[in-house]
Amino acid sequence: MTAEPDGPEDRLRRFATIWSRAVFPVTSTSLTRPEFEEQLLPLARRLSEGLRARNFEAAAGRTVGAALVAAHCTDPEALSRALDCVDAYLVLYCGEDGPGEALRTRSARLQHAMAAGYAEALRERTLAEQQAISQAALTARSAVAEALHDSEARFRAVFEGAAIGIGIADLDGNILQVNGALLRMFGGSEQSMRGRKVPEWTHAEDAPQVWRLYEELVQGQREHYHVEKAFYRPDGTALWTNLTVSLLRDADGEPQYQLALMEDTTERRLLNLRLRYEATHDALTGLPNRTLFFERLEKALAAGEGQRFGLCYLDLDGFKTINDSLGHAAGDRLLVEVADRLQSCATAPGEMVARLGGDEFVALTTGPNTEREVDELAGRIMNALVTPISIDGRDLTVRGSVGIVEGPAGERGAAEVLRSADITMYRAKSAGGNRFELADPEADARAITRNGLTTALPAALDRGEFFIEYQPLVHLGDGSVRGAEALVRWLHPQHGVLGPDRFIPLAEHTGLIVPLGRWVLEQSVRQARTWQERHTGAGPLRVNVNLSPCQLTHPGLVQDTVDILEREGLDAQALCLEVTESALIGADDDLLKPLRRLAEMGVDIALDDFGTGYSNLANLRRLPVSILKLDRSFTRGMQQFPADPVDLKIVEGIVSLAHSLDLAVTVEGVETGAQAEQLRILGCDTAQGWYYARPGPPERLHDLALVDAVG
Question: H helices of 188-255, where?
Fold first, then answer.
């Protein structure tokens, strides 16, 4: 397996090399391939910077697209090859371990901007060429009396040798001459072309002003015009062109001919349409995505007086259970089937269905009578989910909760409308699900559970409503259990068991995270001591405890940890504290000092969710970490065989980097045996995930460790 380049500059150079090899064969340049590569290197750097910029700027892609034209990459295949190369390799070599999905979305937007910049630059170049041809034609016509033979030869050379299509017609629209490029564009014979009149070349997608401009030109009221226009080829397919038509006058200044210059833009148009589709549609279901939905919603809300809108926000009930029990592949197939059914519910004018993400869908209807129409739309959606969906031979009953918002256009913004629909949907879900609710400001306020959970947090800790589950950490080399990650849960009296994602942000916001975190650390260390007393394996079972950003800045962190370890009699080496990568981005020495002290004591520090925080890899040297916990987004492509080669390369590079810095690598979210085996081959040290065990009571970890010891 080929090793990755050592640093960002080497990776950038590798990307430029691949790009030059792809595009050079179709580039009209006197440069050698290495010289051409040097010309592409600053363009590659510009794309790399645009990919990783904090805020997306289309100017980066447009500049690169224009530069390709300046570098003579004007062959019809050059742009396609360049975009294919950017699509396949930009994130791989220039992403610097950022979040894959976000980088691929950014890459698609850069490709779209490249195509736009390329088209604009090529259009400007073509216009310059067109003006030169027009001048040559005029010069040839005006010089007939003086040097007919020479001027006619010059004009004929320009006419026949031009790469763009050229046609000459009289003012009645009779086509007199066409060059070879124009014949090739249309795919017809010269006789068939000359037998037609210009006004016959109408197309269904002609802009209203096209033929008005034409009439003004042949009447001598304008000298030229430039439009984008489609034509029908003889086989019925569409030919899209940048069309410039100029008026040719005789020696006395009287209008005599019209000269049409055409640039074939069909391929670029199709490419732009494809990029636009990919940027605005969900890759899994083919439905419009969040971006396109917000465009339509904002347009509906900006409609004139008398217009209304209706929005249905759907979230599937119990979808996580399906994912957990049958796997994400089955869950994806379920989402595709649900999307198809929802699509059939919104076929009337003014209606659309989109997928916002996960198992969340929205349906929009617009018009003057949406009070009735949105209720009917919600009813159709609920009825569409009644019939079970067959997945892997199992008939799954799908239920959904729908929040409905309806009202006049112009009163609220898109974000406010969607927020209201989301709150209303959760109200329907809290009422038992499999139903729809209408938005109501007072009911929305009551449905927001955030305030209630925030208020209940302090008393919940006093009442002992929190408990800890442990997920085993398994050594990939020998399969032995090496410890577990402590995961806190809240057994809420009304809402049942709540995961940390529901209450940890609230605890951080209120400051309760410090006493809650101290409690979790105490319980986890005590449990680790119990494991140590009962475990007879090769080494002590280690416990991993998560630290929030608020805990990192608390002045009592080090002393609390020391006191707890001493009180429970646990060696510091049996404790690992996990800190998210995002919490350490830009961390100064004051923030790192407590972690360094803990590390010097022998406590392991793990960098959690590695690869999602856009951190500088060079900073790893200054962080007091001994373990990298690789985010699961990098390994999803390994769940099935064959594994995603891009994911393999990324993980291989991270593992190599970590080991070169004497860091161990732990992988989260391992769900299949194929995934575990591939990670073992790549050199990852430990792993956790449902393939081994779901989070559970501490006794189960001891049982698993005992089985390993006996085995």
Answer: 190-194, 209-218
